[in-house]
Specification:
9 strands; alpha/beta; two-stranded antiparallel sheet; 15% helix; seven-stranded mixed beta sheet
Length: 158
């Protein structure tokens, strides 16, 4: 794996997010435990999740590296064994549905850490889904006070 070259780490608005917005080491462990062996795409560029994936996808990434794909999440057409993300389903229901459908077609496992409610320290999250809100029901969920891990296992179209 190529080590990212940070382009503006000090100025990245989410570089010092407080917990629970920033995943803890235990949260990283939950992602790792539920992933299958193979390639992993990270939706976004969450610092603590960068080391556990092969590629990162974001429309406006905060760092430059060979592993970064500048692209909207829902437009991915490449297959990965795992697709992971923290907070990627919290923007809007429309985006959450598009991301979930994309993942159902392009991976075996999709793991999303999703906030249960708006926290005081949040800037842009507006959608706080429950399992029944998704067009595809999750295979598993792991709930905490402020956030839930939703895990989908797909057959994959590889």
């Amino acid at each position: 794996m190529v080590i990212p070259t940070l382009k503006a780490d000090k100025n990245y608005w989410a570089s010092e997010l407080p917990r629970p917005l920033s995943p803890s080491d235990e949260d990283v462990g939950i992602f790792k435990k539920n992933m299958v062996i193979g390639t992993t795409l990270l939706l976004g560029c969450t610092k603590k999740l960068i080391p556990i994936n092969d590629r990162q996808m974001d429309i406006d990434p905060w760092y430059v590296a060979q592993t970064v794909i500048v692209q909207e999440w829902a437009t991915n057409t490449n297959y990965y064994d795992n697709i992971i993300g923290g907070g990627v389903l919290n923007f809007t229901k429309e985006l959450a549905d598009k991301v979930l459908v994309m993942c159902s077609e392009h991976c075996k496992v999709f793991i999303a850490r999703t906030f249960n409610r708006k926290l005081d320290t949040m800037r842009i999250a507006a959608h706080f889904p429950k399992p029944q809100d998704f067009p595809i029901m999750p295979s598993k969920l792991i709930s905490f006070k402020d956030y839930t891990f939703y895990i989908w296992k797909f057959r994959g179209k590889r």
